[in-house]
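Structure (tokenized):
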């Protein structure tokens, strides 16, 4: 008895799934590339830290969250790495590459504030930013530490968006010659997939209570109304205002700077200093050495940059 052959047709849904898999692989490749570049740059400029470490809490214990690492302290200076995409909850990226959540970073900063051996804190920043959710926890922790001890943010390559918001809470910000800072602002992306669903023959309807017309807005497959778009813009504006307030609270000089905030752009090295976004151009090993020598104002580095 002959077997019948089954012909598989490529439907729009199958094509979409294939495209999603390809994009996922592409995105994973980009993340791996970023990780390798970051690791290579830090290894090339590595400073050996030999002082004993202080253990802190073990994080929230989420599915992908690893225990919070020990605080690194050398010659009285605590170093906390603010690297990679930042978020409130741990995801697969954190688990694979060892980056920390906002909460874990706040734990380390609080540990530095409480540790009597720590005379200064250095935030080593290399991050494109991240989510709005959770950033206030780290911002408040850095501000509290700054009130108790000198805090310096050393930007190694990039401090963008909420990563800059965190760096702005430090008493001084330094940046690599080819480092970038800025990208101040908030954005939200909502995909309107209603046309795609319609082409697939799928109708999606959202039934919300009469007094809550905005409930369910953005549900995949439903069109985005002008009223919903206006409301999401309101939310983004409020979050952007809070970001600016936070940056101004940590870096009051920006209130009178020529730079119009927010404008979403990033600025490199000396240009960032000229615009008031940073205080000096210096590599993070030089900053760390100055702090360990007791130069908490980094007067030599700031003077050399002028």
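Design, position by position:
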């Amino acid at each position: 008895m002959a077997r019948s052959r089954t012909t598989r047709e490529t439907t729009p849904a199958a094509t979409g799934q294939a495209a999603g898999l390809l994009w996922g692989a592409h995105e994973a490749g980009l993340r791996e590339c970023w990780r390798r570049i970051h690791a290579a740059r830090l290894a090339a400029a590595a400073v050996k830290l030999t002082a004993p470490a202080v253990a802190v809490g073990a994080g929230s214990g989420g599915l992908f969250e690893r225990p919070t690492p020990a605080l690194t302290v050398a010659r009285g200076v605590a170093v906390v790495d603010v690297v990679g995409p930042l978020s409130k909850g741990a995801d697969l990226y954190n688990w694979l590459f060892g980056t920390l959540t906002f909460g874990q970073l706040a734990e380390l900063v609080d540990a530095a504030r409480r540790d009597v051996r720590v005379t200064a804190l250095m935030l080593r920043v290399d991050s494109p930013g991240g989510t709005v959710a959770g950033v206030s926890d780290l911002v408040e922790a850095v501000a509290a530490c700054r009130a108790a001890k000198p805090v310096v943010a050393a930007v190694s390559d990039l401090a963008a968006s909420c990563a800059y918001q965190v760096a702005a809470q430090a008493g001084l910000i330094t940046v690599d010659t080819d480092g970038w800072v800025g990208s101040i602002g908030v954005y939200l992306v909502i995909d309107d997939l209603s046309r795609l669903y319609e082409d697939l023959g799928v109708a999606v309807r959202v039934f919300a209570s009469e007094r809550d017309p905005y409930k369910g807005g953005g549900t995949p497959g439903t069109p985005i109304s002008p009223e919903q778009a206006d409301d999401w813009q309101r939310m983004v504006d409020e979050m952007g205002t809070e970001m600016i307030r936070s940056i101004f609270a940590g870096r009051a000089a920006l209130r009178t700077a020529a730079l119009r905030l927010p404008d979403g752009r990033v600025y490199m090295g000396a240009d960032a200093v000229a615009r008031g976004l940073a205080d000096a151009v210096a590599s993070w090993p030089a900053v760390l050495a100055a702090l360990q020598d007791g130069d908490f104002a980094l007067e030599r580095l700031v003077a050399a940059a002028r």
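Reviewer-requested clarification: Strands lie at 72-74, 77-83, 120-127, 151-160, 172-175, 180-182, 266-268, 280-281. The two ends are 88 Å apart (CA to CA).
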